[in-house]
Write a structure and sequence with these properties.
Oligomer: single chain
Distance between the termini: 34 Å
Strand content: 15-25%
Helix content: 25-40%
Low-confidence stretches: 5-20
Order of helices and strands: HEEHEEEEHH
Structural class: alpha+beta
Length: 144
């Protein structure tokens, strides 16, 4: 694990411990080894990655948040879903962030969406719409 991923994982672990551990917390990703639960691709970049974290401690990793947003298993509501912020600024719950279309080349599978704070999403999105998680899931489902 590279230094940046390790530091991010430690921050998430400490935050989870301070919250009492009732909500499953995201875990560090072994870049170059972890596989996407939907497409099977290897996670090489943390930006835009996702995790479905279950109460029993099991995790489904996603190399592109679009893979997670289109995976029926992740959308069943049995896991806490997290995405890695744009510019690798840490993990955030999908309910607590908005999404904007970025350069598709910046995402592992070309879905092209990255999570940003609402103001930045509105600025970056061509339509100035800061998509919530349910908006993104619906939009990607319609593109199938």
């Amino acid at each position: 694990m590279n230094r940046r991923a390790f530091v991010g994982a430690m921050g998430v672990a400490m935050a989870g411990a301070m919250c009492g551990g009732s909500v499953p917390a995201p875990q560090g990703v072994a870049l170059g080894h972890a596989k996407c639960a939907k497409c099977g691709g290897t996670l090489f970049v943390i930006e835009g990655a996702g995790e479905a974290v279950y109460q029993d401690g099991s995790i489904r990793y996603y190399d592109d948040l679009g893979c997670m947003a289109t995976d029926p298993e992740a959308l069943r509501g049995q896991a806490q879903l997290y995405v890695q912020m744009a510019r690798s600024k840490g993990w955030v719950r999908v309910e607590d962030i908005t999404f904007a279309k970025a350069d598709p080349a910046r995402t592992a599978r070309g879905y092209g969406y990255l999570p940003y704070p609402e103001e930045e999403s509105r600025r970056l999105a061509p339509d100035h719409w800061a998509r919530g998680w349910s908006d993104l899931v619906k939009e990607l489902a319609e593109k199938k």
